Amino acid sequence: MNDNGSVRYKVAEAARLAGVSASTLRLWESQGLVVPGRSETGHRQYSADDVARLKRISWYRVERGLNPAAIREALESEEPSADGAEASQDTGLGRKLRSLRHASGKTLDQVAGDIGVTSSTLSTLERTSQGVSFKTLHDLAEYYGTTVSRLSGEESGEVPALVRAGEWRRWPETTPGVAVQLLAEGRRMMDCHRFVLAPGAASEGAYRHEGEEFMHVLSGRLELVLDGDQFFDLGPGDSLYFESRRDHSWRNRHDGETVLLWINTPPTF
């Protein structure tokens, strides 16, 4: 139990150690100041590093009188690269987004306002690479002049053209229930992906970009909507080809997983 990565505190314990109330911890979580882990039963769990962060938040609030937005910025300045021992591949996308924001000279509140999300949502994404819809991820990539594929590390140099079954590299799972697996690596003229959608998974809004795209349903059922009024109910074996500049949104209509092949050309998503 001496390893900081293995210690886990419940809400009441973490609040006591930080010198605040449990309701304050929940408030700070809603403001994107801290993101605790979750047990298998869904209960909040705080690591020793989380508790240390809570104490810093309390200090900034009491001693410096900072508001939540200023506290987030102050915490970021303490750990500008997030490249410590706890950093993992799963946080790479969040680090890239934070670097892009810093390079643009924007604050969390400015970008969140421009994109139409809360500052706490954006803060969580930058620190954990999780917690946003597929549409929001696309909007952020477009905002910074890049693509989701590049943010996800897809264009990482020359790699073999052969990808064996079951050995697909995956995007960071930014959106709950949406797993994107790479069927072709490196700089290509096409984005070739295998999507695995959990029951109820959806884009949570329409998005568009340049290019054309093709999808083929391998299993399950997908509803795709073009331009807000053209509905397609796709089942196993069905295919659809459309221009990417048309607004498109989607959701898994199956009570199990839906798996599909999805190709974009050129790679603009």
UniProtKB/TrEMBL annotation:
Residues 8-77 form the HTH merR-type domain. SUPFAM superfamilies: lambda repressor-like DNA-binding domains, Putative DNA-binding domain, RmlC-like cupins. It holds the Pfam family Cupin_2. Keywords: DNA-binding, Isomerase. InterPro entries: Cro/C1-type_HTH (IPR001387), Cupin_2 (IPR013096), DNA-bd_dom_put_sf (IPR009061), Lambda_DNA-bd_dom_sf (IPR010982), MerR-type_HTH_dom (IPR000551), RmlC-like_jellyroll (IPR014710), RmlC_Cupin_sf (IPR011051), TransReg_Diox_bact_type (IPR050807). Residues 97-151 form the HTH cro/C1-type domain. One of its GO terms (molecular function) is isomerase activity. GO terms for cellular component: cytosol. This is DNA-binding transcriptional MerR regulator/mannose-6-phosphate isomerase-like protein (Cupin superfamily).
